[in-house]
Specification:
The protein is of the alpha+beta class. The protein is built from 13 helices and 14 strands. The strands form three sheets. Strands 6-5-1-7-8-12-11-10-9 form a nine-stranded mixed β-sheet, with helices on both faces. A hairpin with a 5-residue loop joins strand 9 and strand 10. It is elongated. About 7% of the residues have low confidence.
């Protein structure tokens, strides 16, 4: 083992089995942070928060925190896991030092979050550049766009936190809105934006969707934020189906695929469509899906108040056993719809493309295994910083998979959280996971995700 110019030690392999260290698998995350320039970018962006004569660089502290979350941590104190293995992680700051930095960043949260986002954008450009043909933006076109998925999730608060509020599911906590770049069938995804909101924040708040989308676009290398064009596709569920948000997307020329709520009048109009107008739906393998049909209903519906060029595609299918029909369902079949401005493409292909938005739920599940299970701090701005660190941890994991396991099934594996028998006071590695491929999980049936491929 030798010391390089990096903030972290360099490990070597010895077949004799002496000098074994724990958490050596985390070296893949550390090297990813270095090869993408993330550590250097964070140090540079967060330099205004470094006090004179300070022993620890704020960028190093934030990187350490991100790694601790990638290993399964769920609070600031879990950085102790790194501190206990200095042979792998080098010198790690004390808990009071970490706490003071988070407090300082939260005191100027807008500037601190901008600094972290700037570092992430720089590192993302480097990561995608190194990935080459495996990068999400490789050979993107209007027919093969880079995909940004938006979705919100509820995070419970089990104590009084600033801005925590009752949720629509009768819980209490927060309702963050997140954006992920989809890596496609062969990969997972990575976060590009997140907005922390109180638990009572509306699901279809257009201003929030616009803010998150704008931040997400700013994270994409070589994409013009003001007018990205059709090479970028924004997907959301029905929460994004507001006139304001879709008009904003329309003005920027972005492709979109957004869940669309049907009115009684639309369902009535749909009844006039002949059976021959319906086409069989396809599954993730692009094979015929029994009991499901799709139709381009644009010409049947009154869409005069919606943006020019909008298409509404409707799917009808037999409901799953036990599922309850809604008032807008018809003839015992479940109706779902989405709106898109993609002109070309068969209706089955567009419907399958939209359904693959469900992979965003896998990304959120992974995020909750990487620090998003709760917001551990009291102040709202402190938890905004925490959310930024969660995104950094997810970035490191996604980039490691993309760069190190591009042709291996591990690129689609999810992190595996395991419980230790000792208490937190005796072992700060409780709920930690190895960062090597042995620390990832495949879900049931050997598949890395449950969403449509």
């Amino acid at each position: 083992m030798s010391q390089s110019t990096s903030s972290y030690p360099t490990l070597s392999v010895d077949a004799t089995g002496t000098g074994v260290v724990s958490h050596a698998g985390a070296v893949t995350l550390l090297r990813t942070a270095e090869v993408t320039g993330l550590t250097e970018a964070l140090s540079r962006s967060l330099s205004p928060w470094r006090k004179p004569l300070a022993q620890f660089d704020p960028g190093k502290i934030v990187t350490d925190l991100a790694v601790s979350l990638a290993l399964g941590g769920d609070c600031l104190a879990d950085i102790a896991t790194l501190r206990e293995h200095s042979a792998v992680f080098g010198k790690v700051p004390s808990d009071p030092t970490v706490s003071r930095l988070i407090t300082a960043l939260a005191a100027d949260a807008p500037a601190a979050l901008t600094a972290i986002d700037t570092a992430r954008a720089s590192a993302r450009a480097a990561a995608w550049g190194h990935a080459g043909e495996h990068a999400p933006d490789h050979d993107i076109t209007a027919a093969n766009p880079i995909v940004i998925d938006l979705d919100a999730t509820l995070v419970a608060a089990h104590s009084e936190k600033e801005s925590a509020a009752p949720t629509y599911k009768r819980g209490f906590g927060f309702h963050p809105l997140l954006a992920f770049v989809d890596h496609g069938v062969g990969g997972t995804g990575e976060p590009v934006a997140a907005l922390l909101r109180p638990g009572n924040a509306g699901s279809n708040t257009a201003d929030d969707h616009i803010e998150v989308t704008r931040k997400a676009l700013a994270q994409l290398p070589n994409v013009h934020t003001a007018r990205p064009g059709k090479k970028v596709l924004v997907r959301t569920d029905g929460a994004g189906a507001s006139h304001t948000f879709m008009t904003w997307l329309h003005k920027r020329g972005v492709s979109y695929s957004i869940g669309f709520g049907l009115t009684d009048a639309m369902v009535t109009a749909l009844a006039d469509a002949p059976e021959s107008a319906w086409s069989v739906a396809v599954d993730h393998a692009e094979q015929v899906r029994d009991g499901a049909w799709v139709i381009d209903a644009t010409g049947l519906l009154d869409l005069a108040t919606w943006p020019t060029g909008i298409r509404v595609i409707i799917r009808k299918e037999r409901p799953h056993p036990g599922a309850q029909l809604r008032f807008t369902d018809s003839d015992g079949l479940r109706l779902t719809a989405f709106a898109t401005n993609t002109v070309r493409g068969q209706v089955q292909e567009l419907e399958l493309r939209h359904r693959r938005r469900a992979r965003c739920e896998d990304r959120i599940r992974t995020a909750k295994d990487t620090g998003l299970t709760n917001f551990p701090l009291h102040g709202f701005d402190q938890n905004r910083i925490w959310l930024a660190i969660v995104q950094l941890a997810l970035d490191l994991t996604a980039w490691t998979q993309m760069l190190g396991f591009a042709d291996h099934e591990a690129r689609r594996w999810e992190p595996n959280v395991f419980a230790c028998t000792s208490s937190r006071s005796q072992d700060a590695s409780r709920n930690m996971r190895a960062a090597s491929t042995s620390g990832c999980r495949r879900t049931r049936h050997g598949r890395p995700s449950s969403s449509p491929h």
